[in-house]
Structure formats: C-alpha cells, structure tokens
C-alpha cells in the first residue's frame, strides 16, 4: 500500500466536473474504498491502501453523480505483493520479546544503508505493521510481561 495509482479513462469516461470517481478494492477479508483526484480529463490518481495480506484483489472504478445511481465504470485486478518491508514487519511481530531479534538491527548497522533508505524502509515497515493480522493478546514485549 501507500503507492500512487494512476487510472487512465477511456474516451467515453472522461472526467466531467460533476462526476466523482472512486476505487473499491475487494480482497478476501478486507474492502477498501478510496477517493480519486483528477489529474486531467483522461486521468485520475489515488493512493493505494495498505492491506492485511499479500493477494490479488478486485478493483472497481465507480462513478457517482448527484441524483443518479452509482455506476461501476470498470473492473480490474490489483496485486498486493510481499516485499522486504512486509517480511521485516512479520519478522519483528514474530520475534516480539526475543532478545535475539536485536541481531536485525546489528545487521543494519553493519550493512550501513544510506540514511534515506533507512528512513524509507522504516516508513514502509511501519505501514506493513499496521496491517498485519496479529492476535488480540499480541504486544511488543512478547509473552514475557516481566521485561522492563
């Protein structure tokens, strides 16, 4: 999630001032609805939502106009893919409370990626973490609540 998506409209679907377009992402367990921004008469853009798993979802481009029913203009598939940020979030969630998990930070120290890359990775891991499916009893300290 959190990437720019550009939608190219066909000639008959060009953006009119009183028409509002939005995208509906339908996955196996979660549905997202996002607004769009008109770039020009033939293009829209939005930000892809964060999602709770890696899967292919159905995306419907919908149009609404006051006094008219909502129309599905087009449908397509969209794939949420596994990347290093998703892997890192899963690793950190799985290793909560495990002191050995700190080796991950030691790896980052040794490899010394550029600061901008670390900041970007941090943002992506935080986004992935927000969308992980975690048990209700999960917490960052792990099972041992006696840690200070």
From TrEMBL:
GO cellular component entries = actin cytoskeleton; membrane
Q: Which GO terms describe its biological process?
A: adrenergic receptor signaling pathway; positive regulation of canonical NF-kappaB signal transduction; regulation of Rho protein signal transduction
Q: Which InterPro entries does the record cross-reference, listed alphabetically?
A: Rho_GEF
* Organism superkingdom: Eukaryota
What GO molecular functions are on record for this protein? MAP-kinase scaffold activity
Write down what this protein is called. Answer: AKP13 protein
Q: Which organism is it from?
A: Acrocephalus arundinaceus (Great reed-warbler)
Q: What is the lineage of its organism?
A: Eukaryota, Metazoa, Chordata, Craniata, Vertebrata
